Amino acid sequence: MAIKKNELYSSLWESCDKLRGGMDASQYKDYILTLLFVKYVTDKFKGQKYADINVPAGGSFDDLVALKNNKDIGEKMDKAIAKLAEANNLTGVIDNAKFFDNSKFGNGKDMVDTLTGLVSIFERPEFNFSNNKAGGDDILGDAYEYLMRNFATESGKSKGQFYTPAEVSRILAKVIGLGKVKNRNTTIYDPACGSGSLLIRAADEAPFDIAIYGQEKETTTAGLAKMNLVLHNKASGEIKSGNTFSNPQYLDNGALKRFDFVVANPPFSLKNWTDGLQEFGRFDGYDDRPPEKNGDYAWLLHILKSLKPTGKAAVILPHGVLFRGNAEESLRKNIIDRGYIKGIIGLPANLFYGTGIPACIIVMDKEDAAERQGMGGGIFMIDASHDFVKDGPKNRLRERDIHKIVQTFVNRIEDDPKYARFVPMEEIKVKNGYNLNIPRYIDSGDAEDEQSIDAHLNGGIPAGDVDSLKRYWDIFPGLKSKLFKKFRAGYYQLKVEKDEIRGAIFNDEEFKAYAEQIDNAFDAWLKKSSKKLMNIDGTVDVKKFIIELSESLIDEFRHIELVDFYDVYQVLLAYWQETMSDDVFVLKYDGYMAGAEIVKIFKKESKKDDGKKKAEPKEIGWEGKLLPKTVIERVYFAKEQAEIERAEQVVAESESRLEEFVEENSGEGSVLADYAKEESEDLDAKKIAAKLKELKKQKASNKSEEYEVLAKYTELAATAKNQAGIVKELNKALDESVKNKYAELTEKEIKDLLVKQKWSFDIFEGIKSLYDTTSHKIATRVTELADRYENTLPDLEATVADYETKVKNHLKEMGFEV
Q1: 3-state DSSP assignment of residue 499
Q2: Are 802 and 809 in contact (CB under 8 A)?
Q3: What is the end-to-end Cα distance of the chain in Å, rounded?
Q4: What is residue 144's predicted lDDT score, i.e. its pLDDT?
Q5: Fewer CB atoms near the end CB (10 Å): N or C, the chain?
């Protein structure tokens, strides 16, 4: 049975709780990732001949399980993992995390309990990787990436450099053209590979397996990279440990080995890069050397030296490399004159875990360098620094941002001069003296919103401001005349009241008619995609599947002017990541009848046992495995839902009457004031019932006000309680009916529910909201202009003078001389 990625991620992160608090995330990541690796290779390769990884006797996860509760568990775990390492020539690579460490796991029973609990987590069904066939869809690799990203976040600024955000990695992989390679002997190299995420993303872009080479200075991190390769089905890739400048690991006849492609995200502005330096001709032919206390250009020159004559590279570096002077200016001039730089992409600040400064991607291409050397050549530049979303303490590129960067760069799209343009060499060399600072070539700032002194003095809204909304008036020509009328030459006046602006736009016939284009485009995409969506099976390539869906969606919305197709793309991809990819993965391995399954929902509760708190799962409900209860209710039980809504409305009205009655009779000296619970706003129902029973014994003619109030309160409270009980029973009955309905669903019904009632319903709601914001944009701008020029300066001065006169008169009446 397949497991959803999000469930696997949740269990993995829970395993971190066993170690969180005892050590820093930069340390405990090594233990969690090592166990994940051992479990995966055991499930996938144990007992297989000619497997990528040899799982020897005594070196499997099963051997770790046998050590649970063993007093020597830490020491014996290290020995078992060492056996696995030795059998695969991975000693010093996958066995760097030592479990027999009192400083991290405690002594005696503390170590035994912690390590036993850690191993037990990986025994859960969701970690049975042989059953859910996880490897074929990189679910393990994705889980590994998930952990690395979270570890990098927790590790903080100083220790998160081992990980390059996947969003940035994907951009580098696509802009250097790896997707178009035809030579199966293609090689790719990363001289500062960290945990290998960038290298793997780049290699994934190629249409077939290519040779992978990476070097990482930190031995432990190099081990993580090697494990990462295995988990991504790239076990043949090479990762070597060592300092790239003093001890480069990839040599060919005494010179640096050359590669077809290079990707890198080296540490920014490295200060000690010259320690033990061996040059290997990296700086031959250049007028200067990189400064001793800043290694940015050292990395750049190493990469250029490591490229074949037809090689291509993409490297992430701080913006300073684009404009800093002295030796770096000289090196930049040399590199530009040689035509090596194909493009520069400016990224948002605060994307990376090791630093918050803004960075750029420098794309280099030796093959076509000659075409860029003369004044007829140029460099393609993109300023993507404004396109991101806040994600906790960091910024993150969205799917739309990635797609926009890649499509713009690959196709050299220049339709937005505030985003991208091809800059001629003459402009770079002559006009700007080889300074590549992006703002010199792309002004991405918003135009200043100018104020009209004439309008402030004489009234009216400047025609220039109204005409700046031309893209809307071209599409809705009648809307402009509905909102504005001529006031005087060059100025308009609002035709409707300010609070009617939004309604006028939203109810405009042209505006509503344009919304039908959104509906039609989505319907066309759904019709085109339905066959694909309703025939998912084990042969589906999940990665290609979403690419085809998203490209098809963009095609349908490309012509809809008021909805940015990049935003439409983001709606689909966000939904894919959150929900749909899990669904497709389950369908791929379990089929559509998995839509008839329901799963229990558990919540952890703390329970004391022998003085220690233990988290125990408690069943709190159930949900459909693929089809949420809300979908079944909406399609099959609309009548019952409507009945519940009516009953809930009755309850709300009864509770409102009760609250109102209590409010009227709870003030100081009021009847209910004496029946409030201590330190609570609630009334004491038992005390009220006892007093009412006592008062009932009196004759009818002697019934007091207190009796009447308490009786009325009791009646209202009982009514509200009874009605709430009815709602509870209705919900219970509906819940049971819905649960029974799952068992009755046919495969045809499940397909229809998934595609038309779940996926398309949710995706269309997201796209529709994009168009709804259009009305808000127009309305907000029109209202802003109306507010700005509503009162002229003479009107304001007259108002001030009028108030001043009134104040003086009031003061005079009060006997003050003014």
Answers
A1: helix
A2: no
A3: 89
A4: 66
A5: C
